[in-house]
Amino acid sequence: MDTPLIEFKEVTKRFDSRTVLNRINLKIYEGHVTTIIGKSGVGKSVLLKHIIGLLTPEEGSIFFRGKLIKGLKKKEWDEYRSQISYMFQDNALFDAMTVFENIALPLQQTTSLNKKEIKNKVMTRIEQTELSDVAYKYPSEISGGMQKRTALARALVTDPKIVLFDEPTTGQDPIRKYAILSMIAEYKKKFGFTAVLISHEIPDVLFISNRVLILHEGKIIFQGSPEELDEFQHPMIDEFISSLEGLQDELTGLYSKQVFRSRYNAELNRKRSDDIFTVIVFTIDLERMNENLGPTTAMEIFQSLGMLIKKSLGAFGFSTRHGRNQMVTVLPHAEINETEQLLDDFARELQEEKIHRIQVNTSSEECFGFSMFAGLAEGKSSDDLDQIIEKAQSRQKTIARFLCRK
What angle separates helix 144-156 from helix 115-128, to the nearest 10 degrees? Predict the structure, then answer.
């Protein structure tokens, strides 16, 4: 890989006699979403505050683009610091300021924009985070979820190059939680910033992450891709993930990834190596949905589709959320012809459920629409599941179209 954007080498941090970070080594790459996970109280926030300079290590070194941060000149340090935005876990909103004023504050303090330019940027973020109805209310007058979104809007209003998110979804209901994660992923793609999150929302945050770091007992015990994490063996990982993941995906009601894999392996053990089963991969275009409908509405639709998959296909197989915009169903006793009929029945149910009737408040001349796609592939118990899923993805076709109404 290229030179890391940020790198820790042998970083140690103590508070009195307690060692919180113990000779930490880690790498964060530009343009990635890097997520640091670990149990409560292990030092995730402490690690994040070293990046922004709120804390300094007793031992070790921190580098930015290969240069030692401690050795930066004042102008270089100010330039580095100006590229970073921080979203605090407790939101850190000012009680005497309205939502609008809280979000505008970084622009007033760090830019030379005039009042009209500031208002335009702030109102854009307010609309994107669905805070228009409370823009001129005070933090004490809005819900905890709205306070969280206010803090998110403030963190993004300066268009930073690096955004540090300290437990961004804490206290949110499932819809809002996934809307925030989706929003982070979409903003990252649109504005090109590097995101560093600390979270315990597994597996949800892994759907938007390029790299994952596991902090355990003061040390980084893993750093790599979410796919590599699946192969990593460590008692802490098994305990931590199983304790948080539960039996179901919180948003869709489908099996969690871990339980889905266990169910799949159990089914295979009952089958002969030449027995046939079928996989369905469902995909919807969340990026267009987020842009046109807003992240909360997009997540509500995604949730409805997941629940309908469970209702319609649960008697024939088992399903999981495979990615930000995908769900996978395995039908262990169905061949492809039978599955095609089940899929046709499911497509009709989509229309009967009237999920396509979406009320969208838009001034656009054209009404926004999106499609749901599905692909099928057969496999045998001796085949690799990931390869079967890839084959099903390559065969996707439109099974339903959803149109809004003004």
Answer: 130
Choose the final residue of a domain: 213, 245, 277.
Answer: 245
For residue 69, give every residue at least 6 positions away whose Cβ sits within 8 Å of its Cβ, in sequence order, or none: 53, 61, 62, 63, 77, 80
Q: In which order are the strands placed within the sheet that holds 276-284? A: 318-323, 326-331, 276-284, 369-380, 397-405, 358-359
Angle of CA points 66, 25, 73, to nearest 5°: 35
Distance CA 176, CA 132 (A): 16
The answer on 285 and 147 residing in a single domain is no
Please tell me whether residues 52 and 90 are part of one structural domain: yes
Residues 106 and 85 sit within 8 Å (Cβ to Cβ): yes
Q: What is the DSSP string of 268-280?
A: HHTS-TT-EEEEE
Q: Which residues pair with 370 in a beta bridge?
A: 402
Encoded amino acid at 6, one letter: I
Structure token digits, residue 294? 């807003």
**230 and 317 in one domain?**
no
Give the domain extent around 365: 257-405
Can you tell me whether residue 158 is helix, strand or coil? coil
User: Looking up tokens 């948003």, which residue turns up?
Assistant: 251
**Can you give the pTM of this predicted structure?**
0.74
User: What are 151-183's pLDDT values in tens digits?
Assistant: 988 998 998 999 999 888 877 778 888 888 887
Do both 241 and 263 map to the same domain?
no
Q: What tens digit of pLDDT does each residue of 92-148 get?
A: 899 999 999 999 999 998 888 999 999 999 999 898 888 999 999 999 999 887 888
Instruction: Using DSSP, state whether 345 is helix, strand or coil.
Output: helix
Same domain flag for 225 and 296: no
Residue type, 237: I
Tokens of 254: 């489908």
